Amino acid sequence: MQIKVNGQPIGELQSSREWNTWDITIPGSLVKDGVNEIVLRWPIPAFPGLTPLNRVVDDLAERLYPEFYCPFGEIHSFVATDAVADLNPAGRVSFKQELTEVQ
Q1: CA-CA distance, 57 to 50, in Å (whole number)?
Q2: SS3 99
Q3: pTM (2 decimals)?
């Protein structure tokens, strides 16, 4: 998975089928006052030909709800904090916000 902050690549993380937790430090030079854009980009998976289509047909024949789409990745929670404030818990500023868009 590739990570960009305000259009600048900051690194890649190895994704897997298992849930993972990552702590990432963004260089202060990439962060600006106001709104910052963080983009997480998963690699496009290799699609196994007609196999998924056959599964959809089988699900429909068994009156099950078919899964048409392959998930690229999921985010359970996303937390951004001010590293300077983290050094001084009395002035700590932190927030949690649901991710509304993944590109």
Answers
A1: 11
A2: coil
A3: 0.58
